[in-house]
């Protein structure tokens, strides 16, 4: 239920543009790591503000504390879950497994927007904060 949209949607400049006059939404970020993965993982910024239709880019940083390469995969969630259908990721590190070499740290981007239809849904009237949360796990069999 709290999974954002990830399917490609063809949009042009008229269907994806910031909604002028709409209240700003705070998009908050959190990152966790499974106890089975010897990584640290955290957002590089705690939050950004956007209006529906506005694209934004956020970064997370991951670091492999071990002395061997490790492949991880991220799961994600959007809170509150009723906002998830409006959260669209254009590009994300979470679409693929990530390999970090020993002692390697990398920046991981997520490029997203809140669907302009958010503004037309009366159930979204009281939602000002949306959290995008990731948890990294060791990739199965890797």
TrEMBL record:
It is found in: Mitochondrion inner membrane. Its main location: mitochondrion. Keywords: Membrane, Transmembrane, Transmembrane helix. It is a single-pass membrane protein. One of its GO terms (molecular function) is copper ion binding. SUPFAM superfamilies: Ctag/Cox11. GO terms for cellular component: mitochondrial inner membrane. Exerts its effect at some terminal stage of cytochrome c oxidase synthesis, probably by being involved in the insertion of the copper B into subunit I. This is Cytochrome c oxidase assembly protein cox11, mitochondrial. It comes from Coemansia brasiliensis.
């Amino acid at each position: 239920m709290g999974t954002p949209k990830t399917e490609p949607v063809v949009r042009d400049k008229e269907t994806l543009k910031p909604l002028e006059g709409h209240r700003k939404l705070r998009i908050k970020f959190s990152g966790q790591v499974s106890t089975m993965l010897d990584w640290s993982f955290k957002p590089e910024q705690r939050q950004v503000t956007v209006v529906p239709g506005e694209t934004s880019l956020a970064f997370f940083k991951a670091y492999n504390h071990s002395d061997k390469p490790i492949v991880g995969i991220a799961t994600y969630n959007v809170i509150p879950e009723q906002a998830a259908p409006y959260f669209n990721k254009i590009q994300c590190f979470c679409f693929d497994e990530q390999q970090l070499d020993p002692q390697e740290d990398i920046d991981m981007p997520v490029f997203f927007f809140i669907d302009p239809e958010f503004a037309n849904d009366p159930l979204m009237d009281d939602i000002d904060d949306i959290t995008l949360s990731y948890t990294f796990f060791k990739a199965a069999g890797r």
